[in-house]
Specification:
5% helix; eleven-stranded antiparallel β-sheet; 341 residues; mainly beta; 2 helices; Beta-galactosidase, Chain A, domain 5; globular; disordered N terminus
């Protein structure tokens, strides 16, 4: 891989201990202490809360690896958690739950939906929490995430690892999905190239159940907005795909996506591989929305992982308070530009 942000590495040997074996407070020299404390969260025991006094994140270890909360220290989490699935574990079917999860693309029932309902192991080192899920034989993978907070800024750094534990090469793309509470607006950059290009196109990718004239979408030349407040209520008793569901993707190289809810702006920053082949028709950023929640998703390039090697997929999350973003494209881009740069 040419990209320095996404690469294949050989996994070093690790010693992983049960989640309960680690300490509570992790000081950070030269700044406000970053605290990592153990708690029960929404019925999940041995969850870990990371806090720097500005933002908090909660990582559960009874399932996953999953990050089930992210928000300002003195405010609510922006992540959505399905109440009836909170605290559950050991289910025999894949369970949605909400929060943030690490998937693999292309989306296939036998690989993408490998179960993540079993306990993980956890390791705390300085200001970083490392959580490893059990092997997933169907996908041939084992997932590990490393979560840390910046001591000075409202920023979370997340590094995802997808290790090939099988005996043959596997081709996947890393897929990061944040499930967000309803009622906000998502923002996705739409790249514009030189006007004299021949075959340099930009892709707007529509899923089979997406309606072009859906009022939740505001398509601009350089910005796409998805207003969750415009999503219709879910039909009663409907099975399969419902009228409230919709999904789009773009092939942006700008490496960001954002969601604004009640004045709090959540920004995801991630790398882009200009030489990479991306799944889903070339999508780098995707947004799924239904009446229940909205998902802000980004993908890495398709990568062939040799046995014993792994994909490393880093990203940064930021939170900003008291943010207003106008509806019109030009002032919206100006307002967002203060945060996404």
């Amino acid at each position: 891989m040419r990209s320095q942000r996404r690469r294949i590495l050989t996994l070093a040997a690790l010693v992983l201990l049960p989640a309960a074996a680690y300490g509570e407070t992790m000081p950070h020299e030269g700044g406000q202490p970053v605290r990592i404390t153990r708690e029960t969260f929404r019925g999940w025991e041995d969850a870990y809360r990371l806090s720097n006094g500005r933002v908090d994140a909660v990582v559960v270890t009874a399932i996953g690896p999953r990050i089930m909360a992210f928000g300002p220290t003195d405010g609510p989490s922006l992540f959505y958690v399905r109440d009836r699935e909170a605290g559950g574990r050991n289910e025999q079917d894949w369970t949605f739950r909400g929060g943030w999860r690490l998937w693999v693309a292309p989306e296939r029932r036998e690989t993408t939906y490998s179960l993540d309902n079993a306990p993980c192991t956890a390791e705390v080192s300085d200001t970083t929490l490392r959580v490893t899920g059990p092997p997933q034989p169907d996908s041939g993978l084992q997932k590990t995430i490393e979560v840390s907070l910046d001591a000075e800024q409202p920023r979370l750094h997340l590094v995802s690892h997808l290790r090939n534990i099988g005996d043959r090469p596997r081709t996947y793309a890393a897929w990061s999905l944040s499930v967000l509470r309803p009622g906000g607006r998502a923002f996705v950059p739409f790249d514009v190239g030189p006007p004299d290009s021949f075959d340099a196109i930009r892709r707007l990718i529509l899923w089979s159940y997406t309606k072009i004239h859906d009022p939740r979408y505001r398509f601009g030349d350089r910005l796409i907005q998805i207003d969750h407040a415009m999503v219709a209520a879910a039909p009663q008793g409907a099975g399969g795909r419902r009228d409230d569901e919709s999904k789009i993707g773009v092939d942006s190289a700008q490496g960001w996506g954002a969601y604004l809810l009640d004045g709090t702006l959540y920004v995801k920053r991630f790398g882009h591989d200009a030489d990479g082949q991306y799944p889903d028709g070339g999508a780098t950023i995707e947004v799924y929305s239904s009446a229940e929640f909205l998902e802000l998703e980004q993908l890495g390039p398709l990568t062939t992982i040799q046995p014993g090697a792994e994909i490393v997929f880093p990203e940064d999350w930021w939170l900003f308070s008291n943010v207003t973003v106008p509806a019109e494209e030009a002032p919206a881009l100006e307002a967002l530009g203060r945060y996404v740069k």
